[in-house]
Amino acid sequence: MPAISSSVGSGAAGAAQFVDSESRRYRYFDPKGKRATHYEDVTVDVQPDPERYLLQDWIISFPNGEGAYVKDSTQAKSSNWHAFRAPDQEWERTHYQRQSRIEVMIQSVIANARKAGAHKEFDGAWNKILQTHLGAWKHAEFGLGSALMQAQRGGYTQMINNATLTNSSYKIRLSQDITLYLAEIGMDIDGWDDERGKQAWLEDDIWQGTREAIESIMGTNDYLEQYFATNILFEPLVGELFRSGFLMQAAAANNDFITPPVISAAEADYERNLANTIELSYMLVADEKFGEHNRGLLQSWITKHGDLADKAAKALQPIWSQPHSKPVSFVDSRAKSEERVQKILGELGLKR
What's the CA gap between 137 and 112, in Å, rounded? Predict the structure, then answer.
């Protein structure tokens, strides 16, 4: 166990004995494995905590006396918030590197496709779908990114902050990718209307359930509820349903080979975000002291946000009938998303 301020009573050098206290590496935390990873070295205990190493209270406090970070930013409870380690082990440098590689790939795909005149082969009905529904979806991604940007501020440790913030960054990047993609191919297609997506997002009945689900996530003050609802419920029930269950399936059948690579990065993003969320959620439900409380809390979130995600998903059904070529049915896509969320919840010992 790492030394804590209350057990040492002194800030003098050498007062505490901890892992590697005799090493020049100065590591003072217990790594998850035999050796600390680079991710752990640059994230664990970077954020100060009076319960760990600080003899005084928070260095910076708000006018009401609360410290810079407070545990009641969420209703969830943990015996040790610092135990969380993100499976993707992403930190600042690796995050920027990955985002940069994705952007280079997407821009290359779009530039090469435009040069080859790939847009000329798009089915006419598919053009309308891209303008209207992919144009609407960028607002969904931006909404989730904004919610998670707010959520990361409440995270009690740097590891939770990092996982939530990189999640936010991925969503906002995808929203930007879709915006730029539609603007670029729109320059080559007669009659293209960049405003259709925004109009559909604000007015089309198909998208109002999605708006409600996302605005509900944005409206909660519990940062873990926002994180959990996004990745455990909304993403498999609505996000993957639309991206993988519709766009990735129907695009090629309608002579569109550009949209799938633009969207595909989002599916890889989600796998990373999902793994992080499951790890954090499992830590909470398996907590020896607070596990029962946390299971009840997460079940209440499942009911609340699961119902909204179901409503959003059902409202999207008409989109599946709009392309001329329909390689997959809404019923089949929906069944896969239902199976997906059941497996995710099963890993946590939770259910709908």
Answer: 24
Rounded to whole angstroms, the Cα distance separating 126 from 114 reads 17
Half-sphere exposure of 349 (CA within 13 A, CB side): 13
Q: Which of 207, 228, 220, 226 is nearest to 311 (CA)?
A: 207
Q: Give φ, ψ of 34 to 5 degrees.
A: -65, -35
Enter the tokens of residue 172.
């906002």
Q: Dig out the tokens for 345 from the structure.
A: 């919840």
Half-sphere exposure of 210 (CA within 13 A, CB side): 30
DSSP state of 133: I
Comparing CA positions, the residue from 166, 161, 154 lying closest to residue 74 is 154
As a whole number of angstroms, the distance between CA 347 and CA 282 comes to: 8
Q: DSSP of 219-266, one letter per residue?
A: H-S-HHHHHHIIIIIIIIIIIHHHIIIIIHHHTGGGT--SHHHHHHHH
- Is the separation of the CB atoms in 317 and 330 below 8 Å? yes
For residues 169 and 99, the answer to whether their CB atoms sit within 8 Å is yes
CB 272 within 8 Å of CB 88 = yes
- Residue 204 DSSP one-character state: -
Residue 284 has pLDDT above 80, yes or no: yes
Q: Which of 37-46, 96-105, 319-328 has the lowest mean pLDDT?
A: 37-46
Q: Which residues contact 12 (CB under 8 A, 6 or more apart)?
A: none
- Torsion sign across C-alpha atoms 242, 269, 264, 335: negative
Cα distances from 87 to residues 165, 265, 305, in angstroms, run 15, 18, 25
For residue 335, count other CB atoms closer than 10 A to its CB.
12
pLDDT for position 26 = 55
Closest CA to 181 of 261, 246, 236, 254: 261
Q: Does this model's pTM top 0.85?
A: yes
Q: What angle do CA 21, 27, 32 make, to 5 degrees?
A: 120
Count of CB atoms situated within 10 Å of the CB of 173: 19
